């Protein structure tokens, strides 16, 4: 948006702590204090004050959001809402999520001028979007094609890569299913290696599970790698795996798109945002959610058919260039802004 000549201010929680106001790449940041968290969401009381001080034409908020809708209404300005997925939770967090969906979310959806969803299936699967179809625009997440690109790094044809935060809020990413699938993959490819990148309170659980399943020699936990090294990791390994288990929680799955941009074949479940393109164009394989046997069959097939896997990786890069570059995605978002303003 900055490159298109727009002035952009991002208001966000001050985590990790930094200067309250700073600029980067032409984008102005306002970082506001937070008083704690509910589940994985920062509680920030001060955005109304900061937003009221601003002179803006439009607010673009990302779920969950309350203050943005209220201030947008108060100032009579358009509100664009990007709706990644329903807010859900377990235990008492589930009760909080239901209250949010019934009251706060309904107000936000009613107030929104446009609702952007990142994958078409969410119109049908969301419990809250019914009745708002006339406001909905489908615009996927984009990818930086210069940062994420093939490097020609040599691989051995037997390595799998999984990337996620290893905490309870991201358990839906399906690592439990992947480890169980790997037991079956190992029968066909005994020296298969799964590289798991990420940290979180479930790290010890996944390490214990891999040991219980007899996978100690087949799984490497790398911990958290620097963000600038992530493209190298995509390129370093042969197949990227994203076995997300929950359609209500998986908003899109950017990591699958980043792997495609790096020219890697992707094995994912059909709840991932790019799954339809992967299936239709042949950029990898998409399987049913929480089906570790089908997942194992897909992984084994690509490990044993390296030429097909390489071709799928090439298709994935082409798809990323044709449909998912941030420049073309930003143009589509800009057209919404222009119409509303």
Present the secondary structure layout.
Elements lengths: L8 E5 L7 E4 L2 E6 L4 E2 L2 E2 L4 H7 L5 E4 L4 H9 L3 E5 L8 H20 L2 E4 L4 H4 L10 E3 L20 E5 L11 H14 L4 E5 L5 H10 L6 E5 L6 H7 L2 E4 L11 H8 L4 E4 L5 H7 L2 E4 L4 H13 L1 H19 L1 H15 L1
Helix pairs in contact: 1-2, 5-10, 8-11
Description of the molecule:
35% of the residues are buried. Helix 1 packs parallel to helix 2, helix 5 crosses helix 10 and helix 8 crosses helix 11. The chain has two domains: 150 residues, Rossmann fold (3-Layer(aba) Sandwich); 165 residues, Glycogen Phosphorylase B (Rossmann fold). With 341 residues, it is an alpha/beta fold. The longest helix is centred in the first third of the chain and has 20 residues. Helix content is 39%, strand content 18%.
Uncertain regions spanning at least 5 consecutive residues: none
Helix content: 25-40%
The tally of domains stands at 2
Named at the architecture level, the CATH assignment of the largest domain is: 3-Layer(aba) Sandwich
Number of helices, where a helix is a run of at least 4 consecutive DSSP H or I residues: 12
Keywords:
341 residues; Rossmann fold; six-stranded parallel sheet; four-stranded parallel sheet; 15 strands
Provide a brief overview of the structure.
The chain is α/β, with parallel strands linked by helices and 341 residues long.
């Amino acid at each position: 948006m900055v490159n298109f000549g727009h002035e952009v201010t991002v208001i966000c929680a001050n985590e990790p702590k930094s200067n309250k106001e700073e600029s980067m790449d032409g984008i102005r940041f306002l970082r506001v204090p937070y008083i704690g968290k509910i589940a994985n969401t920062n509680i920030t009381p001060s955005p109304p004050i900061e937003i009221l001080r601003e002179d803006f034409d439009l607010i673009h908020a990302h779920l969950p959001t309350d203050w943005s809708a209220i201030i947008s209404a108060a100032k009579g300005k358009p509100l664009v809402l990007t709706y990644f997925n329903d807010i859900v939770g377990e235990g008492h967090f589930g009760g909080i999520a239901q209250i949010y969906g019934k009251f706060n979310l309904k107000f936000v959806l009613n107030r929104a001028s446009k609702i952007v969803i990142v994958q078409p299936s969410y119109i049908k699967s969301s419990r809250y979007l019914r009745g708002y179809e006339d406001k909905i625009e489908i615009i996927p997440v984009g990818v930086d094609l210069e940062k994420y690109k093939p490097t020609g790094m040599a691989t051995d044809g037997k390595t799998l890569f999984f990337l996620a935060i290893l905490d309870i809020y991201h358990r839906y990413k399906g690592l439990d299913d992947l480890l169980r699938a790997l037991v079956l993959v190992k029968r066909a490819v005994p020296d298969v290696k799964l590289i798991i990148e990420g940290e979180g309170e479930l790290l010890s659980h996944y390490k214990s599970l891999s040991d219980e399943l007899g996978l100690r020699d087949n799984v490497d936990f790398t911990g958290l790698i620097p963000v600038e090294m992530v493209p190298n990791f995509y390129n370093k390994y042969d197949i990227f795996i994203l076995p997300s288990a929950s359609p209500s929680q998986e908003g899109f799955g950017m990591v699958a798109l980043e792997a495609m941009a790096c020219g890697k074949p992707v094995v994912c479940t059909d709840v991932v945002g790019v799954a339809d393109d992967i299936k239709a164009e042949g950029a990898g394989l998409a399987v049913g959610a929480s089906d570790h046997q089908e997942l194992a069959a897909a992984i084994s097939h690509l490990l044993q058919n390296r030429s097909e896997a390489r071709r799928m990786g090439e298709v994935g890069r082409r798809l990323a260039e044709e449909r998912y570059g941030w420049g073309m995605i930003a143009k589509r978002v800009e057209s919404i802004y222009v119409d509303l303003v």
